[in-house]
Amino acid sequence: MKLALKVTEIEQLSPLVKRFRFEDPKGASLPVFSGGAHITVEMPEGDTIRRNSYSLISDPYDGSGYEIAVRREDRGRGGSLYMHRKLSEGDDITVSTPANLFQLDLRARKHVLIGGGIGITPFLSQLKQLDMEQKPFELHYAARSREEAAGLKLLPKAAHIHVHLSEEGARMDLGAILDGQPMGTHVYTCGPEGLIAAVADQAARLGWPKSTVHSEAFTAPPPGEPFDVVIASTGQTVTVKADQSLLEALEAAKVEINYSCRGGVCGRCRTKVIACEGRILHNDHWLSIEERAAQKDIMPCMSRFKGTRLELDL
Amino acid sequence: MTMQFNDETFRGDYTYHNSQKAIRRFPFPFDQDAYMYSVNIEQHPGGPEGSPFEVMFDVDEHYVAEMKDREITLAEDPLRCQSLPHMELAGWDLLELIMVSKARDYPELFTLHRDGNDWHWINKPLGIEKKFTFLDPTTLPCGPMEYITRQTQGDFALLHERDGNLWMDAGMVTSQADWSLDFDVGMNFFEWHAPVPKARKMGVFDKALKFLLSVGQDQSYRRLNWTLTVNPRLDTSPETYHKWGPEKRSVTPENVGRKQFLRVELQTFFRLPRSNALAFPIRCYLANLEDLAGQPKWGRRLHRVLRDIDPTLAEYKGFAVNQEMIVDYLSQFDDGAPTSPGIFPDG
Amino acid sequence: MPKTEFSPSIESRPTYPGLTSQGSAPAIMVADAAGAEALVDLVATDASVMDHAHVVLIAKAPELAAKLTALTPKALHEAPDLDAATPLVTQILDTAKMGTQLYLAGSEGVIGHVSALAFARGLPMEAIQSEHRGSIARRMQCVHCKGITEDVTTDPFVCAHCDLTLFMRDHFSRRLGVFQAVCVDAETPGVVPATEEIRP
Predict the structure, then answer these.
(1) C147, part of any domain
(2) Is A185 helix (H, G, I), strand (E, B) or coil?
(3) Most Cβ neighbours (<10 Å): which of A258, B108, C32, C150?
């Protein structure tokens, strides 16, 4: 389901990050959600509609509006630039209902949340949920500098919320954070791939069971060189532009396809490859190493292609 | 129009009965003359006016009697309602979903006034009026899931999502087809389905789980499942099997039409907003063979389905011992004529 | 006695792949008399596994205790039976830190019961190592009276609590650490099939 909303607030949080608030034009209550949920935002430009998913940062139980924080990616496909340059307060905006691929495991005896840079966003709604549920937690937020740390304006000041600014010499020590946590602790990481891998490594070294280590590597689809795909059912050829994802190109060509996260993590848009002469540039987090190598499946929300022929079972 | 509620029992003297209207709207589960497992999922709600598919939570003439029967079962065995500690939030989600739906769909029976978290609920058929604070468990006489499911027909399972699986971590189960919540609570999707024959091999559960995990907050779905039960007994639990088991052998060619019931489960699926859990209501409908055969299409089809069913399924569903008698009885309603597609009765 | 090989069964029935050393990490080891041999075998593959290990031996067997002490665990605790061991194991689990490895060895009853205790304290099932040794007796819960009958080796058997004659199912609850048992003559009271010894 789609929600037709209005942009009611835009705030510059840091040189690269803006906060947006959306509300129902008639003031109706929006569906509430769970900590860590995201919405997909539609960004129409000319004849294409770009769609990016962003974590909700507002109070999950407050239906009066949705808030997101968007980092400007100057070398991206144009989605964040649209948000930063084209959108003004009072504009119409279409978003999806919330979905959650990064929920808290509410059985945990303790939650350790680790956010790097813009990866702080999913934790902002989770903090509110944890407060309401009165669950023990600690949060670690790592950023390069005070100026870049957009999350500082959104985080409450509390003893269990730790800010690590590397420029000020306070680098995050993952060993110290993870060592000695009580049995039943879960750790959640969101941020750059390097941070996610570092937390996973450290947890594995300390013998944490895999299912207690959670992460979200949500990124918008990357741009790239244009390429063509053939739709098996119709024989139609679809051209994917440099600043368009394969999924967006398929949607523009009115090809039926399922999706949810648009960030390569939920698996909904997985599509069978019928012919592949060339190399699939897998950018998703869904397919295994073996599946990637086989080139029999593609995740159109994130991945691209380089070669002479790619035919999809659509 | 005000609904009339039957004065009837689901145990002892078994005075349960269906009006003509209830028979016509019975959720007959077979859309063709043969049966095999399938992931037969449709959007819910949605269906012909008056059908049990029309609204989120169907309320019918058996409502008051079913709630009385649940009360008896819970008094005898409180373990039929359990919620692991992390599931309370899902309980509140369920309470909201049901109260909002019922007040909207049956305004003459249920009323809900909300002022922020101050809620005022009126349930006329059960004579309940309650002011409470949403999300504050101290303002209800019991947990939120128990509170609302003591006022809603059907069993309920609340499923927690983690590690790419669904875990049955809470439930209210008093009208089940022979499975134990107390034993199964805490199990994942494959564990609690483990005793079902064949289906895992066929990949039915892998597909079903994949589907359920993808159910979004704005979507809800249903499917029908079925079995057979002797006497209109809601509580066919393993816990009390030694008490109702002998009744299964009390069927004779003379009484089979009235004593043998088709038991249909209307299973629905909802993604709950605050907890991101899935609600899995399982509503039980009962009708005896005689009443069903009153609809000529259903008489013909039921005969063919039960005659030709895979013997493993007849065994699993627990009617193999009476199958011959049932099929003999139903054969009188089957003239060999073709049946129309779909589940609804003709005319 | 070697590790037991069970015949394939349904999804809810646990399997016991055997113990593999996770090295010199904090560890809790619980074993009965037959399971103690599995710990001895484990140490033979990697002696460092005992560096930080609390070992709980559920047996009245001083010679076994001496054998385990010789493996130099951090601590050895003895308990005469599962009931006596429960508060001890619970206490050790309650104060354990993330990364603590759990090694269980012996009968299905010991493995099932201690797994359930650990699971309730947030240790995921995939992090629990187990090896079946010794008796294939099962810990059965009567679905009717909820009473647990220990060390059941025949099918059907009589519930130690409510006297109903029960048949064994492979359906297993990890939360409770028990197999399910159901009245065998519910539909035909008094008609009970012949009693058989169970097989792996």
Answers:
(1) yes
(2) strand
(3) C32
Q: A110-216 is classed in which CATH architecture?
A: 3-Layer(aba) Sandwich (3.40)
Q: How far is C133 from chain A (nearest CA, A)?
A: 25
Q: Which residues, including other chains, have CB under 8 Å from residue C97's CB and lie 6 or more apart? A: A180, A181, A182, A183, C26
Which residue, A32, A195, A255, A265, is CA-closest to B271? A32
CATH of domain A2-96: 2.40.30.10
Does A184 contact C121 at a Cβ distance shorter than 8 Å?
yes
Q: Is residue C19 part of a domain?
A: no
What is the total count of domains within chain C? 2
- Assess whether C146 and C107 both reside in one domain: no
3-state SS class at C107: coil
Report the residue of chain C nearest A109, measured CA to CA.
C122
Predicted confidence (pLDDT) per residue in C64-88, tens digit:
999 999 999 999 999 999 999 999 9
Cβ contacts (< 8 Å) between B185 and chain C: which residues? 175
Return the residue matching tokens 């905006």.
Answer: A93
Q: The complex's ipTM?
A: 0.89
- Supply the DSSP symbol for C142: E
Asked if C94 and C149 count as a contact pair (C-beta separation under 8 A), the reply is no
pLDDT in tens, B298-322: 999 999 999 999 998 898 888 999 9
Partners of chain A (3+ Cβ pairs below 8 A)? B, C
DSSP string over B24-88? HT-----SSS--------EESS--STTSTTSSSS---TTHHHHHHHHHHHHHH-GGGEEE-GGGH
Question: Are the CB atoms for C142 and C166 separated by under 8 Å?
Answer: yes
One domain for residues C31 and C122: yes
Which domain, by its residues, includes C40? 27-132
**For testing the chain C interface, which of B77, B191, B248, B315 should be mutated: the one with the most C CBs within 10 Å?**
B191
Select from A81, A54, A78, A76 the least CA-distant residue to A67: A54
Nearest CA in chain B to C119: B186
- pLDDT digit string, tens, across residues C28-64: 999 999 999 999 999 999 999 999 999 999 999 999 9
Same-domain status, C124 and C143 = no
Query: Which of A31, A61, A105 minimises the CB distance to B217?
Result: A31
Reference A263, options A241, A281, A247; nearest CA is A247
**Quick check: is C3 in a domain?**
no
Cβ contacts (< 8 Å) between C122 and chain B: which residues?
none
Asked if CATH classification 2.60.120.260 holds for the domain at A227-312, the reply, yes or no, is: no
CATH number at residue C104: 3.40.50.80
Mean pLDDT value across residues B10-14: 96
Last residue in a domain, options C132, C152, C177: C132
